[in-house]
Amino acid sequence: MSEWQTFCLKDLVKIFGGSTPPTNNPKNYGNKIRWITAKDLSTLQGRYIKKGSRNISRLGFKSCSTFLLPKHAILFSVRAPIGYTAIISKRSCTDRGLMGLVPNKKIYFEFLYYLLKYHKHNISNMGVGTTFKGISKPALGLFQVKIPPTYYEQQKIARTLSILDQKIENNHKINELLHKILELLYEQYFVRFDFLDENNKPYQTSGGKMKFSKELNRLIPNDFEVKTLGELVDIFSGYSFQSNTYSNNKNDYILITNKNVQHSLVDLSITTNLLFLPKKLPKYCLLEPTNILITLTGHIGRCALVFSKNCILNQRVGVVLPKEKELNPFYYSLIRNPLFSAILQRNAIGSSQQNLSPIDTLKIQIPFNHKIIKQYSKTCENIIKLLVSIMQSTQTLTAIRDFLLPLLLKQQVKPQ
């Protein structure tokens, strides 16, 4: 391979800053111009982003200094946190927390993406500021990188890593589909009550008898009863660890915090690790694959399945332990359901930061029929197993990609 060359980023890309239209004019928002923020990148699963959570109007676009970036521009967050990276798949503009890097002919766009991922911490260390660190456009432009001199060599490296990332992204899509199947089945069984009756017909649609529940203020099937969640599961909050137990070794115990628990996903991309476990650590804090987690502070009610071993429960996160373990798929689906999420929101206390009490959560009443819930759990058991298996596969692929990235960019390994 040819000798790698050193460039400042400004010699390889054009850098564009973003901006936010005034929020006091609702006409600045909506419409068709894609507008991406650092917050959108914080929850991104994969390399490419199609759009943000909000669009802006032509009026909003003209009201600020944001710039419409072309397809395949690279986004990089330059304000705390520094280092979120993505490739835009359609023309978009950004807020001021993101810089848009438009590559010139010297650098292949996917190689640039991986180059920025590799240098994330080095760039972050350049951040200045007292309350929040940030990177200026000139400082980012002067950051030096080494690159192969030809597109072909850059493409070979990018494609080696892309093969792994494509598999990871496909895994995320499969899990999204599996979660959608769970949602549809749950709604069929416990929202519309159209589980199959003894004649193999949907219960309520085919005239199954219903009764009014005063406790739930809704109709439920005749042979259902009302139970509190506390009769069916335990919810335990995690342990408060001392900072002297923390470790930088990724092979140690993984501390599962509020930030790790996203909607339907335990995100292990950024973790705190533990050197050792306290002697008085409760047994329920030693998490196992398929355990159900729920956030108790901040973004309350986010629910996800544990998929990795050596995970330890931190405070502000709860673990839901069914008294009948085989009914785990039902309780996972229940807690993820929007109707249940709305109840959790109503039960939350606190003004500046919402908190969810496990004790109050266990008082929530639900319609219950053991036979139907067991039937549902049996139907969904393999879906849960597949979800966990795919998450484990994704974790392995991510580790391989992260291991290869520095080796390729330090020229210690040559792509085939």
Structure commentary:
With 416 residues, the chain is α+β, with helices and mostly antiparallel strands. It has two domains: 5-148, DNA methylase specificity domains (Adenine-n6-DNA-methyltransferase TaqI, Chain A, domain 2), CATH 3.90.220; 196-368, DNA methylase specificity domains (Adenine-n6-DNA-methyltransferase TaqI, Chain A, domain 2). Helices cover 32% and strands 22% of the residues. It contains ten helices and 24 strands. Strands 2-9-6-7-4 form a five-stranded mixed β-sheet, covered by helices on one side. A four-stranded antiparallel β-sheet has the order 14-23-20-21. A hairpin with a 2-residue loop joins β17 (261-262) and β18 (265-266). α6 runs antiparallel to α10. The longest helix has 40 residues, at 151-190. The protein starts with a strand and ends in a 7-residue tail after the last helix. The model has no long low-confidence stretch (mean pLDDT 95). InterPro entries: Restrct_endonuc_typeI_TRD, Restrct_endonuc_typeI_TRD_sf, Type-I_RS_S_subunit. GO terms for molecular function: DNA binding. It holds the Pfam family Methylase_S.
